[in-house]
Amino acid sequence: MIGKKAEKENYVSTDEVYKILEERKKGKRPLTYEQQRALEHAEKFKEGSAAAQKLRKRLDEVGISEQTVVNIINIAPKNSKLLGHIIESESAQINDEKLKMIKEILGIKD
């Protein structure tokens, strides 16, 4: 993709990467080396697309950044400690109420 300008820039989950690259793979031109490697990676680590979309919608409703939502979906934290690391690494400002909502959505009990 050297020399091409991005039309828009946004964060996408691994599931979305897989879906986008699978569609491009069906096109007239073959995937670039980088796209093929990204597709292989996404194929290994993708979850059920419908479940990821539902989770993204619920997390979007909490009112946190798109980047934080995507990282939560991609990492799928199973405990408060890992969720805390994701939030800290994003420098996200999440109050206790939002944190409680995120934990409920993810099914984190601790």
From TrEMBL:
<protein>
    <recommendedName>
        <fullName>DNA-directed RNA polymerase subunit Rpo4</fullName>
        <ecNumber>2.7.7.6</ecNumber>
    </recommendedName>
</protein>
<keyword id="KW-0808">Transferase</keyword>
<keyword id="KW-0240">DNA-directed RNA polymerase</keyword>
<comment type="similarity">
    <text>Belongs to the eukaryotic RPB4 RNA polymerase subunit family.</text>
</comment>
<dbReference type="InterPro" id="IPR010924">
    <property type="entry name" value="Rpo4"/>
</dbReference>
<dbReference type="GO" id="GO:0005737">
    <property type="term" value="C:cytoplasm"/>
</dbReference>
<comment type="function">
    <text>DNA-dependent RNA polymerase (RNAP) catalyzes the transcription of DNA into RNA using the four ribonucleoside triphosphates as substrates. This subunit is less well bound than the others.</text>
</comment>
<dbReference type="Pfam" id="PF03874">
    <property type="entry name" value="RNA_pol_Rpb4"/>
</dbReference>
<keyword id="KW-0548">Nucleotidyltransferase</keyword>
<dbReference type="InterPro" id="IPR005574">
    <property type="entry name" value="Rpb4/RPC9"/>
</dbReference>
<dbReference type="GO" id="GO:0003899">
    <property type="term" value="F:DNA-directed RNA polymerase activity"/>
</dbReference>
<dbReference type="GO" id="GO:0006352">
    <property type="term" value="P:DNA-templated transcription initiation"/>
</dbReference>
<comment type="subunit">
    <text>Part of the RNA polymerase complex. Forms a stalk with Rpo7 that extends from the main structure.</text>
</comment>
<keyword id="KW-0963">Cytoplasm</keyword>
<dbReference type="GO" id="GO:0000428">
    <property type="term" value="C:DNA-directed RNA polymerase complex"/>
</dbReference>
<keyword id="KW-0804">Transcription</keyword>
<dbReference type="InterPro" id="IPR010997">
    <property type="entry name" value="HRDC-like_sf"/>
</dbReference>
<dbReference type="InterPro" id="IPR044876">
    <property type="entry name" value="HRDC_dom_sf"/>
</dbReference>
<dbReference type="GO" id="GO:0000166">
    <property type="term" value="F:nucleotide binding"/>
</dbReference>
